[in-house]
What we know:
Structural class: mainly alpha
Number of domains: 1
Keywords: Coiled coil, Membrane, Transmembrane, Transmembrane helix
Protein name: DUF2304 domain-containing protein
Largest sheet: none
Amino acid sequence: MDLTKFASLAISIGIFFFVLWLVRQRRLREKYAILWLCTSIFVVLLTASRRVLEVAALSVGIYYPPSLLFLVGVLFLLMVVIGQSVTLSRLSESNHNLAQEMALLKKRLEDMSGEQKERKAEKG
């Protein structure tokens, strides 16, 4: 086994167990963990069997098999960034709505406490 293959296997297996550890520590939600676990398994399979990588690359029309790994990696990262952008946009909108609702509730509370003070002043 050459050094590159060994390093790729070690890194992808390390990522697999690191993701499992993050899930167990509740630092990574299962929703995102599935994506990373599947990716690390995919890299292990492609790294372990060069023939699978060659066949996959040639079926797509790529004549240098390692280029397929780079292409898949770039597309994967692009999809992760798009997913995170969607999540960030949704959370930003939710945060904006919560701030508006909180301001309205605060105003209502101030109005109610002002009315109670007025009633006490009229009675007193």
